[in-house]
Specification:
By secondary structure, the chain is α/β, with parallel strands linked by helices. It has 2 domains: 33 residues; 244 residues, TIM Barrel, CATH 3.20.20.190. The protein has 12 helices and 11 strands. Strands 1, 2, 3, 6 and 11 form a 5-stranded mixed beta sheet that branches. A hairpin with a 5-residue loop joins strand 2 and strand 3. Helix 2 packs parallel to helix 5. The two termini are 42 Å apart. About 6% of the residues have low confidence. Calcium ion binds next to strand 2.
Length: 321
Amino acid sequence: MEKLKLRGMARSVAAIASSLVVLFVTHFLSIEAFAQYTKKTVVAHRGASAYAPEHTLEAYRLAIEQGADYVEEDLQITKDGVLVCLHDLTLERTTNVEEVFPHRYRQVERHGVTEKHWFIFDFTLEEVKQLDAGSWFDKRFAGAQIPTWQEAIQEIRGKAGLFPETKAPEVYGRHGFDMERLILAELEKNGLHQPGADPDTPVIIQSFSAESLRKMAFELKTRLPLVLLLGEGNKEWASPEGLKKVKEFAVGIGPAKSILRASPRLVEWAHNTGLSVTPYTFRSSAVGKGFWKVRAEMAYYLDTLDVEALFTDNPDQFPHK
Ligand code: G3P
Ligand code: CA
């Protein structure tokens, strides 16, 4: 009887040990393959931008409260060379620039129509700080400012990761700025330029521009993980051959969810190439066809399509396991 009991116990111990080995190996392999993620990951798109004005410290704070693993920052550059968090190249959609600086626009011809635009690179930081970046979203946020990236880093550091995007780097190149160098210098100033420098503040850099990422990888020799965003304008990368080329300079792709919907095998191709997949953008205000809630839509991409991470305006709706 005693012997039987002992044998049974030995079998249970062996079974537990082998499960632990399998778990360890799977976990290790998945980290090895997609070094920048260790679990299903939520990236707050422009902060918790469904609930607070995008790219304000208020939106970043809320994203952290809602459990974001990373907060994304779209980066632009002011006239005096300061990196600031702003999605558009122009100020009029998300600030009161037309009231504060009514004459500081440029006229741009588009499809035969003359448009007025207030470009961020025509304004110094001191001027940008005079703008209200909150009222357009809700009067409750009146007075919110466009943050410098440094201010954003200070707000987010230790509480979530940073996910900066180089926006229009070629435009800034024409204005005499080297966006990639500025970004890496700012990270270095904060001691965040090496992978793992601050385990509470991992950094991933993203761009739609393969050139921008190549420059960071090969010319500036960053070892930080780089993610190539894929949209309608550059979806030629979304093939097994294209992904092999992406792998030369990036660790992951960030496709528009419409691209994945049309071509779900992209995830398998990316994984076979050793690339992670972080689609954008999941939002309660524009839930994808066939889903009744953004949470269900995110769950489908995470569980059925098996993406590692995603960008969402609604971090509170992320289906944590
Ligand atoms: O960076 C992921 C997603 O934000 C890309 O689109 O235009 O919102 O920056 P956009
Ligand atoms: Ca972005």
